[in-house]
Each structure stands twice: as C-alpha cells, then as structure tokens.
Design brief:
The chain is mainly alpha-helical. About 80% of the residues lie in helices and about 0% in strands. It has eleven helices and two strands. It has a two-stranded antiparallel sheet with strand order 1-2. A hairpin with a 3-residue loop joins strand 1 and strand 2. Helix 5 packs antiparallel against helix 6, helix 6 runs parallel beside helix 8 and helix 9 runs antiparallel to helix 10. The protein is elongated and about 110 Å long.
Amino acid sequence: MRRWRATKKGLGLQEQEQEQESLTRWRWKSNEWRERKRQPTMVEEGMEASRLLPADCLAIQEIGASGAIFDLLAWIALLFTALFMAFKAVNADPVVRKFYYINAFVCGVASFSYFAMISGMGWETIMGCRQMFYVRYIDWFITTPLMILNIGLLAGEEQWMIAAIMGADMGMIFAGYMGSVALVPTVKWLWFVIGLVVYIPVVIALVRIFRQCVLDKYDMDRIELYGKISLLTVVSWSVYPFVWLLSVGTGGLGVSAESILYALLDVTSKCFFSFMIIQMDVYETASAETQKEYV
C-alpha cells in the first residue's frame, strides 16, 4: 500500500491529466448510455404513440382537408336523397310509400351525422391520440336496422325474423363502437371479434333466409330486385370492418383516409340503395296480382 501511494505521488503532471481525461471520458460515456436507455428512438416513439391513452395526448391526429371535402359531398348526396324520398312519398303508391319514408329517414339521419362532422362536432380522442367520430356509430345504430327493415319488407319476411336481424345488426354496431373506445388492446380486439360474430347472422339472413322468402313468392321481378339489393348491402357492409381494421384497429390509415372511405361506403350503401329499392315495376306487378285476387 505504501509503495502504491508513493508511485501515485510520483506520477507526473502529464500522466495525472491523462488519467483525469480518461476518467471524464468514461463518465461521459456512462451518462450517454443511460440517456439512450431512458429516451426511446423514433421508431419506438412511433410504436408507443399508438398505445397512448387519450389523457396522455399532447396532440391528436385530426381529419384533413381531403377528408372534410368528401364528408361535405356525402352530406349533400344524403340530404338530396332524403329530401327527394320525402317529397316523392307524398304522392307515391300506397304499396311503395313505406319504402320512400324509410329511405327518407335513413338518409336524413345520415345527413345529420355528416353535418355534425363537417361542423367539427361528434368526435372524441381515442387510444393512440386519434380523432374518432362517434356520431358515425349513432348514425349506423339507427339507419342500418331501418335498411334491414326495408329489405325484410321487400322480401315479405315475417316481422319477428326482421326484428331479430335488426337486433343482431344493432349489436354489431355497438361492438364496433366499444372496440373503438377501448383503452386495452386485448379488449379492443375482443370487441372486434364479437362484432364480426354478430354480423354473421345478418349475412345469413340476407343471403339465405330473406332470399328464400322471396323465392317462395315466384315473382321474378321481385327476385331480381332483391338479388341486386342484397348483393349491394352485403358487399358494401362487409367492407366496413376492413376500414375499421386498417384505421382505428391498427392505425395504418389516417383519419382523412378513413373518412373518405366511410363517406364513399355510406353514399353507396344508402343513396344507391334507396334509389334501387323503389323501382316501381316490382310493386306495380305485386299490386296488379293483389287486385286480381280480389276480383
């Protein structure tokens, strides 16, 4: 120990400075390593951003100009369709009048939803610091059961069956909303799976149960119209879960892209649906056959 101390004291000034410099360098590297360990990289920050709770968000991903333009165009299309159906319902044939009124309600409620969105209302921040328009789910919760009612009336299905499928559809929309606002990823995906499971009876009813009811009537015009309506509905409705999966589910799509896709789907599944289901040839044939029965 005494020899070491003597050697230490005998070090020159230059050697002491080198020792001090190496010690400082070691401390700097140690602090740098700790700083790197504490602060995530840009890739890690991106991954962690999708897991941020709404209360932790300093900024949120909002809809852009392109998404707002498509929402505006969808609002105009839905409002025009609703007004057209409402005015035409007044002088429509009693057999087809109910379809006009239901179409007017469907497109009218959807136009309220889009007016709220273009006004900057009806949204909340969800997990991942993302803007989510909950007013869409209010719209779908009301309008999609009415569309099933329309299809059921066209098919001539029994009321209890129509009501059961309407209930399954409402459960599907509810599950989609709960998955969107869930704060735990596992819970979010469970709600998504539940929504898909509840959607299966809706597809089965449109493809098989309601269709069989139409086939039993041996009305070729009605069978052809139902085939077009059911195909449009099943295909367009089946795209919605994929949009949810790519947007709210994984965050792959931005809010604007999500809004554009939903706007196109809503116009297709509601406006085109409304104008297709009021084709007069089908109902005129049915009315003529009914009159023959009473003669």
